[in-house]
Design brief:
Structural class: mainly beta
Largest sheet: 12 strands, parallel
Helix content: under 10%
Strand order of the largest sheet: 1-57-54-51-48-45-42-39-36-33-21-18
Oligomer: single chain
């Protein structure tokens, strides 16, 4: 093992390790580094945008008006400005807001607005041509969504442009064009997974030896085009509301009932149980797509709270089977109410909840009128969504896109009870918040059968494990995902961000796993296998022997790590007796080899230097 290093580099980009915000910087930088390859363009010779965090440039002005380039403070955003000229090609991977912090804007020499994005936009590799008289380009994005953004670039070798690169005399592309499959970054070649890894994922992986990309494309996972069934939160059903048009939108439950294999269920707005989004079983090959980037399904009810007589800060509402409450007024900053033991305790504690019988008592987070707050009361139901091929006895493919699920109890359960038939599920840009429950044994996302692919998904604040695969019939692929804050407050420190059990197999690519109450990534028991590529795991939410970043637990488990980073745990790499962990080109501080750890080309990183002596939470 080499000596400690003072600076941590990934592909030539330094991660700051000594300032007080190092943990936040690690996550932000990790997101950007992991998205470098997802841009899938050759940026040689390009001008790269450099983003400034926690501010934005107000570009929500009328055309022809001057844009003030002084930054406006806002912790949710980052911005970048580059000189630009007419006909420049600007390529953007970012997520802009609808009004003031617009995704992109072109300005003239006097900073007057020539052209700008309209509406909230989340884009990957969006290319825009600068209009006449352009002098500057301004980009705004929510922090955590920016990839590589640049102006021009010499050679693009993505998809259809491979042929252009060959005809332009690019010898390297010509030499490798037969080996490469779209999309690719020039210089990447197919990465071979370990021969012993007994899982064939539904995507190919490519690498330049340090970073990783895939050829994931939504069209390869969606069902063939069938009817579109529109859903809203009205709860309507019947022949007058058959979902055939947006004006005839039906309830989610009814849409599932009438859908046929190949159909698409288009959710037009946020849903709650009030609008018919009750527990649902899916055993059809359908697409379930949110119209907006964060179409939210609230697994609970919005009830009317009233002031409780004799108390200054306590409000109550009636809801049988209530389990808790979440303030969802700002979907980007959910506020869960902390459980109290009495009404008197609620009176004294902001953001607390007490449930007695069918009555829910809360002390709101905001001093503003509770009528201006959107408080979700979560309820004691099991799984909101149960995906399987039960009752079907056929191969099934289910595709989700732009869906955020917020609830408490069952989360999502994926199973394949019919032997001999395939169940394939894909979650594309989905999120799971406050799902699962410790006492009931529910994980946020529970996979006990079938093959599941997660692309750019987030599993946050779950009651137990974030993503749990268990059993030889279960397998999964996670690409550019985040699993954090899961299992907080659980009865023990065995809750993980992502975990495989009982012979399950998993491929994780460019994932970030942190602040989970147990090992951030844990693969457990006989015949369980995982391959982890370019993943970052840091600071578990416990300080005992379960404080682990990448862990092979219980005899017979095998874990492969390539170009991964593990810092801020009691053990960054952990191999229990009888397990095997392979680490190549990884950076970590402490390892514990009670089983076998084979490490090659690795770097030792001082966690204290990386995070500082005090590690602040998100």
């Amino acid at each position: 093992m080499s000596e400690y290093i003072d600076k941590l580099f990934l592909s030539g980009q330094e991660i700051p390790i000594q300032d007080s915000g190092a943990r936040e910087q690690l996550e932000i930088q990790g997101t950007k580094l992991n998205n470098v390859l997802s841009a899938l363009n050759d940026t040689t010779g390009a001008k790269l945008f450099t983003f400034v965090q926690k501010s934005y440039i107000k570009t929500g002005v009328s055309l022809g008006s001057a844009v003030d380039l002084s930054p406006k403070s806002n912790a949710a955003f980052e911005y970048a400005i580059l000189d630009c000229q007419e006909n420049d090609k600007v390529t953007i991977t970012a997520y802009g807001q609808a009004t003031n912090a617009r995704l992109w804007a072109f300005l003239d020499a006097n900073n007057k607005l020539l052209k700008a994005a309209t509406g909230s936009q989340q884009e990957t590799d969006l290319t825009i041509i600068a209009p006449p008289k352009t002098a500057k380009c301004v980009l705004n994005s929510y922090i955590g969504y920016t990839g590589v953004c640049y102006i021009n670039g010499i050679t693009k070798t993505v998809g259809d442009t491979i042929a252009e690169a060959v005809s332009a005399g690019n010898a390297e592309v010509e030499q490798n064009v037969k080996e490469w499959t779209s999309p690719l970054l020039r210089g990447l070649k197919k990465f071979d997974l370990p021969a012993e890894f007994q899982y064939v994922p539904r995507i190919d992986v490519y690498s330049d030896g340090n970073q990783f990309a895939t050829n994931f494309a939504p069209e390869n996972f969606k069902n063939s085009s069938g009817a579109v069934i529109y859903v809203d939160n009205s709860g309507n059903s019947g022949t007058a509301y058959d979902g055939s048009t947006p004006e005839k939108a039906t309830s989610f439950s009814n849409a599932l009932y009438i859908a046929a294999d190949g159909d698409t269920i288009m959710i037009l707005e946020d849903l709650s149980r009030d609008g018919g989004s009750a527990n649902s079983a899916i055993n059809k090959s359908v697409n379930i797509i949110g119209k907006s980037n964060d179409t939210t399904i609230f697994d609970g009810n919005f009830v009317q709270f009233s002031k409780v007589s004799g108390y200054d800060h306590v409000y109550s509402a009636n809801r049988p089977l209530a389990t808790g409450a979440i303030d969802v007024t700002n979907k980007n900053k959910l506020l869960k109410f902390v459980e109290a033991q009495s009404i008197a305790e609620v009176e004294s504690a902001v953001g607390s909840v007490f449930i007695s019988g069918n009555t829910v008592y809360v002390h709101p987070y905001s001093a503003a009128s509770i009528t201006n707050r959107k408080i979700l009361v979560t309820v004691d139901y099991e799984k909101w969504l149960d995906v399987s091929n039960a009752d079907a006895a056929a191969d099934k493919n289910v595709y989700f896109e732009n869906i955020t699920l917020i609830g408490r109890y069952g989360g999502v359960h994926i199973d394949k009870p019919v032997a001999g038939y395939d169940l394939r599920v894909c979650f594309n840009h989905c999120a799971f918040r406050f799902c699962g429950h410790d006492a009931e044994g529910y994980n946020a996302v529970d996979v006990s059968g079938g093959d599941v692919l997660f692309y750019r998904c987030k599993v946050l604040d779950g009651g137990r494990d974030g993503i749990n695969y268990h059993g030889a019939a279960a397998s999964g692929t996670e690409i550019d995902c985040i699993a954090a804050g899961n299992g907080k407050g659980a009865r023990n420190n065995t809750m993980n961000g992502s975990t495989c059990h009982l012979g399950a197999r998993c491929l994780r690519i460019n994932g970030k796993y942190y602040d989970n109450q147990g090992a951030n990534v844990a693969d457990v028991q006989e015949d369980t296998q995982s391959v982890n590529l370019g993943c970052i795991a840091f600071q578990p939410a416990c300080d005992d022997g379960y404080s682990q970043n990448f862990s092979a637990q219980q005899s017979g488990a095998t874990v492969w790590l390539y170009n991964c980073i593990g810092v801020g745990a009691e053990y960054d790499l952990y191999a229990a007796a009888g397990t095997t962990l392979y680490a190549d080109k990884c950076a970590y501080d402490v390892k514990e080899a009670r089983g076998t750890i084979t490490d090659t080309n690795n770097r030792k990183v001082n966690s204290a230097l990386l995070f500082g002596m005090v590690m602040n939470g998100d």
